[in-house]
Amino acid sequence: MPQKIGFKPIPSVIALALGLIIWFVIPVPEGVSPQAWHLLAMFVGVIAAIIGKAMPIGALSIIAIMLVAVTGVTNDEPKKAISDALSSFGSSLIWLIGIAIMISRGLLKTGLGARVGYLFIGLWGKRTIGVAYSLALVELILAPITPSNTARGGGIIHPIMKSIASSYDSDPDKGTEKKMGKFLALVNYHANPISSAMFITATAPNPLVVDLVAKATNSNIHISWGTWALAMLLPGLVCMALMPLIIYWMYPPEIKQTPNAVAFAKERLKEQGPMTMHEKIMLVIFAILLVLWAGIPAMIFGPSLTVDPTTTAFIGLTLLLLSGVLTWDDILKEKSAWDTITWFSALVMMATFLKKLGLIAWFSGVLENSIGSLGMGWIGSCSLLLLGYLYAHYMFASTTAHITAMFAAFYAAGLALGAPPMLFALLMASASCIMMTLTHYATGTSPVIFGSGYVTLGEWWKAGFIMSVIELLIFVVIGGVWWKVLGYY
Q: How much of the chain is helix, strand and coil, in % rounded to 5?
């Protein structure tokens, strides 16, 4: 058997062609250094390869690191060039997400995540709308320690949702998805972007947003875990409360009463038996992580007891290893965590040096001049930037690629046009998760739930667009007022 090549030829050729055209064909613009332009060429090529899925994102990241080191775009000295290429592996934000993904494995291994889901369905599952709110609440509860939104929405909650729909004979293969499966699948999915917006640790790209904001403001704005959670609390809860009702109005389930769902949940809990010691330990560690991430010890006893968020994640993982809830083999098998650390480091490194080499400042200046010439004032201009940034996600199959490619320039342009830095940072951060609603390829959770067949392509895109508009309005209006009350701007 011939050995298969390690990349997809067509998307690889397209990505390579884009990089070569920028490097060799398009003249370096005035005000941009050749090094910055050449790094942009590599960056665009890598992003195009990620969008086209030419290779796994981790493999593409290794290539990106190699290219930066070999070409010497950041430094002429080979030793310093490889140091630059590997520099982001020391980022605490990257390790925060990697370690948090490892911790979330405990929810799956112990069965605590599924138990929480069945407990809420057992309480509120007498109506279909109650089942929907139970799924949304479980999504919200698990979000702070599940940075893989795909694992949360697709791996933990979706199987529960499918089991309930199947118990009522709502099956797309039988053409009975309208009984309740369509409605529950959409709620299952749309709870995912909302919960992702509510905590830094709820989806992997959020720390990237924090890092880009800090760099754009010369560290004048560094959004902590607690600051983010408090800022997103009110608009996020409003979105979570309204979302099932809106989807219920759009795609009402044929079955409104679901007394069997309570019995089904109780039967599953009976099968699980009483909480095991490992589940109890996982629950306690979950509480410890939330307390430390929220900065409660420092609030009560003073700043001397402040614990860095990444240190907190390491404390949680250490406790799980010491207690035997997780083993080192479990950690080694958590491929998504090591994969995230790798691709995150590469993309953050490239974005960092694009800023250091002046490319981001140049591009944000182009945006500023183009939009500023319209004479709309900072509110109108920044609204255009926000909408352009959000709806550009129709062209992306990765939130990380989208944020890496566009966030820094659009945020910098907004600041230059007069937007309050913290207000615009929070709006851009919100949009970075709201954009997940749009398509069936918007984030990793999308193909999992869409692939189960309950929702047609047209229905998915219609619901996604409507929810994106409603959620954006909630974050702009309610969020804007809430952040003003908090004194964030």
A: 80, 0, 20
